[in-house]
Amino acid sequence: MITASLLILLAYLLGSISSAILVCRLLGLPDPRTQGSNNPGATNVLRIGGKKAAAITLLGDSLKGLVPMLIGHALGANPLTLAAIGLAAFIGHLYPVFFGFKGGKGVATALGVQFGLYWPIGLGTAVVWLFVARVLKISSLSALISMTLAPVFVWLFWDDRALIGMQLIITGLLIWRHRSNIRNLLNGTEQAINLKASEDLGRD
Known about the structure:
single chain; mainly alpha
């Protein structure tokens, strides 16, 4: 019980480390909370700092979900504890204790949780994200579609109520955090991914 509680606390604390803010500080870029979409996430870092900064941010945010899950597996955590660990890491990213409880939207961290739970789940979600992003070139829509399908991948590869429940909660929270993007999508004003512009920014 103590071990499970410590793992859940560790997951939340790791999730609370904002990769976007730290990467921007280290690279001398503007605070992502004050530029672009004002979201401390990889897509906004791509807009304001280029592909290199965004890739580092994406990796950092993914590891926040991946590492706690791998530790849980290594210590023999049961599905209920794994579900709590994954949810804690995700909530840490959304509401980080180190940054005034104002975090990102959680796509990369959720993906890290899925890979850490069982890699085919993460791979399935990632493939859907990449396909939609390549075809439609809208990051938020890619996230919404892939994460809506994520509970199906959990059900297919690891049919456990606690883990499916974890993913349903993550998906619900992620959709809630994307509500402004959903409004923009409905209005036809959502920004597309512009790699060329971001590369130009990265060279400034």
